[in-house]
Design goal:
The complex is a heterodimer of chains A (341) and B (501). In chain A, 44% of the residues lie in helices and 18% in strands. With 341 residues, chain A is an alpha/beta fold. Chain A folds into two domains: 170 residues, Bordetella uptake gene, domain 1 (D-Maltodextrin-Binding Protein, domain 2), CATH 3.40.190; 99 residues, D-Maltodextrin-Binding Protein, domain 2 (3-Layer(aba) Sandwich), CATH 3.40.190. The N terminus of chain A is likely disordered. Helices cover 75% and strands 1% of the residues of chain B. Chain B has a two-stranded antiparallel sheet with strand order 1-2. In chain B, strand 1 and strand 2 form a beta hairpin. Classes of the chains: A alpha/beta (341), B mainly alpha (501). The interface between A and B is large, with 72 and 75 residues. Chain A: This is Tripartite-type tricarboxylate transporter, receptor component TctC.
Amino acid sequence: MKTTSRYRAAARIIAAMGVVSLVAACANNGTSAAGGGGDAAYPTENITFVVPFSAGGPTDTVTRMIAEPMAAKLGGRIVVQNVEGAGGTVGAGEVARAEPDGYTVLMHHIGMSTAPALYQNLDYKPLEDFEMVGLVTEVPMTVVARKDFQPATLQDLVAHVKANADKVTLANAGIGAASHLCGLLFQSAAGVKLQEVPYEGTGPALTDLVGGQVDFMCDQTTNTSGQISAGEVKAYAVTTPERVKSLPDVPTTTEGGLPQLQVSVWHGLYVPKGTPQDVVTKLSEALKVALADQQVIDQMAKLGTAPVAADDATPQAHRAKLEEQLGTWAKILADAGVKAS
Amino acid sequence: MELLDNLALGFSTALLIQNVIYCFVGVLLGTAVGVLPGIGPTATVAMLLPITFYFEPVTALIMLAGIYYGAQYGGSTTAILINLPGESSAAVTALDGHEMARQGRAGSALAAAAIGSFIAGTIATVVLAVAAPPLARVALQFGPAEYFSLVLLGLIVSIALARGTALKALAMIALGVLLGTIGQDIYTGTPRFVFEQRELYGGVDFVSVAVGMFGVAEILRNLENEHSREALVSKVRNLWPTREDRRRMVGPIARGTGVGSLLGILPGGGHVLASFTSYAVEKRISKRPQEFGHGAIEGVAGPESANNAAAQTSFVPLLTLGLPAHPVMALMVGAFIVHGITPGPNVITDEPELFWGLIASMWIGNVLLVLLNLPLIGLWVRMLRIPYQVLFPMIILFASIGTFSLSFNAYDVYAIVFFGLLGYVLIKCGCEPAPLLLGFVLGPLLEEHLRRALIISRGDVTVFVTRPISAVLLALTVAALVVAVLPAIRKRREVVFTEDD
């Protein structure tokens, strides 16, 4: 009999393991069953927010921040799912092909406007395969260097890299990453071609910058402000029209004499083309409510960013932004000869 | 004594009742996801991150850290019992640990892993407390050239120790390196070996390879001789390490802790090398190298200690510089930010309760892990009694669910099937999967750092010898090669990764 009870105990462990892993898988997955589109009752089931980047990254953090107040407004549940790969194109492609019923929503950033230029065999068209819901936030970027890097100001930096173009190294977090795009824009604005050093993500790139292995880079305030305020890296400028609240001493690129260097990591929500208009409107209204939520404003401030104005959290403003950005990046990337595949 | 004051502050924070409770929740969850093949700490931390927004910052970080090192701890359990490593470090544990289980010594192996991990964790906590800031400065001296030389040394040490089937081991490493190149090249964005499948752009997941090559291949091999498994399990012997075992564990635990503590600090992949290096070291200095791969307890105690020590010291760059060394730590950076703490060098001075509380909690977490795991050993060993017609399908089911939950990529599950079949064929050909895994893990690191070093130096290869740390590492590499090649010594060379036939 003892053997039987042992066997049962072991079977119980196995069963427990099964339950845990199933719950884990389901909790992360949520439902994606097709519902009847266009109904006034939307939402009647869980809404999945697809983040095409890894969990815990800036885009994921922003998504999780707005998911809860949006769910409260919509009167449903929102499940965040990370579908990573190929610079966000795997997750975006998945949403483009999803049922257009409003239960699959994509959060994407500036990469939406660069993908067509970077990826030749892209299996979706940003303007034609999606309905825009609204813009969410625009994260400012900073031009930073190792702390013992010679130039003192942004203008010095431009002069220095022009004079030493064969020596200076410019780090980035990989092809198509925000830091890569900002670096390209810097080179185009300064009129110089530099040696770029790609890394797999911001963490390693910043580590080598703090360690003095590379000279400078351009990255989101989210990643750099801690190192800037600790004096581990030297900050030359923020790439927005106005100074950033969390970094009051850092001048803008306009003040620093390089007004062409304007870039921010803008985020927006998308649903598949053909999603009923009233569903898009409901999502857009919920987005506006979430962006006005004091907790969301506070949390974004900690990230060194802020929600977009209510006028920008609309399908029209979002579409206009995407069209403008697609044009901008197509030119810059073509000029730089950059391709991801 | 400033250190004692700091530790007192740390323990007074970590011993608050809510912190102890969430530390326990963290290590419990960590053990659970470590035991479950596939589901790793990264996915778990990502899922729990939003919940921690409502905690005190220090409580949140204590729990998230507990999940991370708890998972390193739990990962050895499935590696030992069913040859299913969930992380690169556990793959090394599987070599001798599973062999011990086959010999009916699963209890000893599990106990060796638990005790080794606890001692390593305790010492690594002291290292963190005493020397975190200066160590982080040393780690920053490691640039691409140094990492290249370090990884090369790790790879050569392992090859140099291969015996008899050296050609096959070399072929397996090469195959592993090739498999590691699948995906988008980070320097040019060129997709390699992806066959136009966008899902392969991110490369093949380590978990899929490990689960397939070790777990599924092992199951297929077991299916060949159905009767031997029952015979094997019926003779489960002592649950505790014998006196002889205990004596043999001491040295490996001490050396593993040292190796792990040092390598763990390096954010550019150093911690990946910890358990591989510890295994190679133990094998080299052992008086009984022939036992390695056939159930040597040193091969469990050493790597498990190294792995746990590295898991803890890998918090050094995060806590002292705000630089994450692992995806889990990147998530923890997110936790810092959400709580309004900017991760960076200022955390130690601005948030001393948080810094010292987290360090103290790691030791408490290690105590909790031992209290949690030692009583469970008897229960885990009983799992081996489950009839294989029940156990095997469940292993494959959980492995598939877990792997799929990593990034919702069906290709990760197809990869399990592919590598399971490949692993079986390779075993039949007398090739060992362990060197393949080594190549798979280290190959991409080697390439990444080599190319980056050359990009920064504008193609000047002398950087590897003009930078002092790199030069020393390369000299050690040459020494390892010489030792391997000298014919007189060759006779004594042994296999670092022996698998039985």
